[in-house]
Write a sequence for this structure.
């Protein structure tokens, strides 16, 4: 009798162990995208996963023009090529042809943009010669209004929504006009660390520290030192560029123009880099080991000098964006995989792989004054509501 009980306990333990092993194996297969297929008899078929995510959420997901679900959701699909479309009322549609592979996950990470952007003025008395800091946290500009002469001078706007609500994005007069100093006659540029402003006119140059009160007593003409200041800033910029270059594969480093910091820009997560090619070259395949879920969008590994590209550091993919002659004000949109730029007199946006290109704004605006907000939800530009009106800085809410 004890022997029979021992055998039964052993059988129960063996069954429990087998059940756990089989269940764990099946769960692993399901997690990898396998599904039961009864069409051709009992069996298991391999599928891929489409993780359809979007900002904002609750957008409709169409696969080959058929409504499947809403974001955010994960869908099992047999390995094949699919046309994915994500739409939401009030937003521009997103669509892309993707290759679903077995046991891999394709994630849309869709950023939807407003179909009707909201414009809000930041200035009301004009804005002359605006310049943005390299970190895009500040804009400096001059005011020369005939109707508000006492308020004319040099102004600063902080592009930061973390400020106190009562002072958020309010223009701050940092220096009035002084005898012999009319700020509207100056152009402005920021130091590489965004802490100093170089104001230059036809005969005068002033180096202004943003965090130090500006008065006529501490204004000193630095024209004799101008070449030295510019050389110091250039050295700092080159140092910053060299640090950025070290994050890239060596095969890519020698192909990138380092004449300006705007020729080498990393995305917010630093997984992708926008660069200007310095020469014609061929990027060899797999200069780093790509992941199984590497992007299947068409690459451009045959690069041409004078053209912009985006290299994905994790995926080892390289995408053509456009020539330097046809694109201006090209920048990453913070907290996204999108780029903004000006082309054909329009403010446009595109994904890093040069898909989903849309026009965000096509009014009368200054093409060299396009600055993304620090959170990426707005773009600041210099525009006018109607012909003959003064140009002011406006924030265009795009998402």
């Amino acid at each position: 009798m004890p022997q029979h009980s021992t055998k039964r306990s052993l059988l129960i333990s063996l069954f429990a162990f087998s059940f756990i092993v089989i269940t764990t194996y099946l769960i692993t297969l399901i997690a990898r995208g396998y599904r039961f297929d009864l069409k051709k008899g009992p069996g298991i078929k391999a599928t891929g996963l489409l993780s359809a995510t979007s900002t904002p959420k609750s957008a409709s997901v169409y696969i080959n023009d058929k409504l499947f679900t809403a974001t955010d959701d994960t869908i099992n699909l047999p390995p094949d090529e699919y046309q994915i479309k994500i739409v939401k009322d009030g937003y521009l549609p997103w669509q892309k042809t993707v290759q679903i592979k077995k046991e891999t996950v394709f994630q849309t990470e869709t950023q939807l943009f407003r179909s009707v952007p909201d414009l809000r003025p930041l200035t009301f008395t004009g804005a002359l010669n605006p310049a943005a800091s390299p970190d895009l946290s500040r804009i400096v500009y001059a005011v020369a209004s005939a109707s508000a002469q006492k308020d004319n001078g040099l102004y600063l706007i902080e592009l930061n929504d973390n400020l106190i609500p009562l002072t958020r994005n309010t223009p701050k007069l940092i220096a009035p006009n002084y005898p012999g100093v009319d700020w509207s006659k100056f152009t402005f540029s920021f130091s590489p660390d965004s802490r100093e402003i170089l104001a230059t006119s036809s005969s005068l140059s002033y180096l202004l520290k943003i965090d130090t009160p500006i008065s006529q007593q501490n204004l000193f003409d630095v024209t004799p030192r101008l070449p030295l200041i510019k050389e110091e800033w250039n050295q700092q910029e080159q140092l910053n560029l060299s640090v950025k270059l070290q994050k890239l594969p060596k095969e890519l480093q020698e192909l990138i123009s380092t004449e300006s910091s705007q020729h080498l820009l990393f995305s917010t997560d630093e997984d992708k880099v926008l660069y200007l090619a310095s020469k014609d070259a061929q990027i060899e395949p797999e200069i780093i080991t790509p992941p199984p879920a590497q992007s299947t969008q068409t690459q451009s590994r045959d690069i041409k000098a004078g053209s912009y590209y985006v290299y994905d550091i994790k995926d080892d993919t390289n995408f053509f964006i456009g020539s330097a002659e046809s694109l201006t004000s090209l920048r990453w949109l913070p907290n996204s995989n999108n780029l903004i730029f000006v082309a054909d007199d329009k403010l446009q946006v595109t994904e890093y792989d040069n898909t989903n290109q849309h026009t965000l704004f096509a009014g009368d605006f200054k093409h060299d004054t396009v600055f993304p907000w620090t959170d990426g939800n707005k773009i600041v530009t210099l525009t006018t509501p109607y012909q003959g009106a003064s140009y002011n800085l406006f924030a265009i809410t795009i998402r």
